[in-house]
Specification:
Elements lengths: L1 H4 L4 E5 L3 E2 L39 H4 L2 H9 L2 E4 L6 E6 L2 H10 L4 E4 L4 E6 L5 E5 L2 E4 L5 E2 L13 H4 L32 H16 L5 H16 L7 H13 L4 H14 L3
Antiparallel strand pairs: 1-2, 1-3, 3-9, 4-6, 4-8, 5-6, 7-8
Length: 271
């Protein structure tokens, strides 16, 4: 492929702009490689597993029968900016673009569905929501390939690096300020039984992990079920929510998608 020939690691995306899920061999990282998609690992899987870490420039891999089958199902092409020595400032709306024009040096820009990608020479730590409507995509992250863009690419400025000097949490569950009215259930909450709550969270994790399609919908419906069963008595802790977010992110969901799905589920239940 042209991108790979220019030393830009690429990978296919399925519907929803998400990476393809891990194959059966690599399910739950049983292959021992690339745990939590944070390292390159020793995995020798022939399919595009492990999210961003699947991105490659190797023509033998990209043209292999296993990858060819997945390319036929792909809805878009993505690349690993950090692997190409690049950083993408993802500007999600007009306000974010206006901020960038005032605060950042001009560089190559690529139009997106709702905003622009500003592409700089140099790699750095990735982070989401560094300010309203702004994500940083570089190391251990992927970005959609939307064309070469326009303008001269400039060196990564300190102003962009400063945006992630204090890294935001990758799991940001909505705060749970939910209580049980006095007298409900005689003042006793069945969910405080450790085994009951643990079983519910474990089943939710399993449902997300086993999703083979419509992952975003599965995540939302699972969050909805968990909140419906356990959300009104204040039993859910940040640790429980983090487990659900981690399972969703392992399937390719972004932290923003997780937060949106959680917030939408709470809204649907009137929380």
């Amino acid at each position: 492929m042209n991108l790979a020939a220019r030393a830009v690691p690429v990978l296919p995306l399925r519907a929803g702009k998400l990476p393809f899920g891990n194959c059966i061999v690599c399910r739950d990282n049983s292959c021992g490689g690339r745990p939590n998609m944070k390292t390159a690992g020793p995995c020798r899987c022939l399919r595009p597993c492990h999210g961003w870490a699947a991105a490659t420039t190797d023509p033998a891999v990209l043209q292999s029968p296993a990858w060819a089958e997945v390319w036929q199902q792909a809805q878009a092409v993505a690349y690993h900016p950090g692997g190409a020595g690049l950083t993408v400032v993802d500007l999600d709306n007009a306000d974010a673009i206006a901020w960038a024009r005032q605060s950042l040096p001009a560089t190559r820009t690529v139009p997106t569905t709702r905003g622009e990608h500003w592409v700089y020479l140099g790699s750095m730590q990735s982070a989401n929501a560094v300010r309203p409507g702004v994500d940083i995509k570089s190391l251990m992250q992927y970005a959609r390939w939307l064309g070469p863009g326009a303008g001269t690419m400039t060196d990564l400025p300190d102003a962009v690096r400063a945006l992630v000097a204090k890294e935001p949490s990758t799991v940001r569950p909505a705060p749970l300020a939910i209580t049980v009215p006095t007298g409900v259930g005689g003042g006793h909450c069945r969910h405080r039984m450790p085994s009951y709550l643990e079983r519910g969270i474990a089943m939710a994790e399993q449902r997300i992990t086993e999703a083979r399609s419509a992952v975003h919908t599965t995540v939302y419906r699972t969050f909805l079920a968990v909140l419906s069963a356990h959300g009104r008595c204040g039993c859910l802790s940040d640790a429980h929510v983090a487990r659900l977010f981690t399972a969703a992110q392992a399937k390719g969901e972004s932290p923003r998608h997780c937060t949106d799905a959680w917030t939408n589920a709470r809204t649907a239940l009137g929380m």
